[in-house]
Amino acid sequence: MSNEIFLRRTKQLRPLAVGFFVMIVGSVLTFGPMTGAFRPARAETYLSLVIAGIIVTLGSLTWLCLRITCPRCGAKILWWAISRPDNAGWLNTLERSDCPSCSYAPDVPRDN
Fold it and tell me: Which terminus of the chain has fewer Cβ atoms in its 10 Å neighbourhood, N or C?
């Protein structure tokens, strides 16, 4: 068995990266106008950007929580990682070489 991370072997690193990128875009839309990084000309545009950013960020997080799963047991790995109160190192959960729920570890590494 390889020590390669579970998400790479199950071809889930790309969706994880895309989801995090979309969350960053949503955060920029939300906090850009608030911090003065860019100022919309009209107040309605300001509010629309903030609301759109919140929707994009939360939508991306929801999509990631539902999309990153174990192919064997169907456990939602990202949700499992961030929802455990005893799991302060949630990022370490994403670096595991097996499923945190059923310990499934694909034997054959796959290209991502």
Answer: N
Rg for the chain, CA atoms, rounded: 17
Per-domain residue ranges of the chain: 6-94
- Which region holds residue 91: left if phi is over 0, alpha if psi is between -120 and 50, else beta? alpha
| pLDDT 10s digits, 23-65 | 999 999 888 887 777 777 777 788 888 899 999 999 999 999 9
Task: Collect contacts of 62-65 with beta carbons under 8 A, ≥24 apart.
Answer: 63/19, 64/15, 64/16, 64/19, 64/20, 64/23
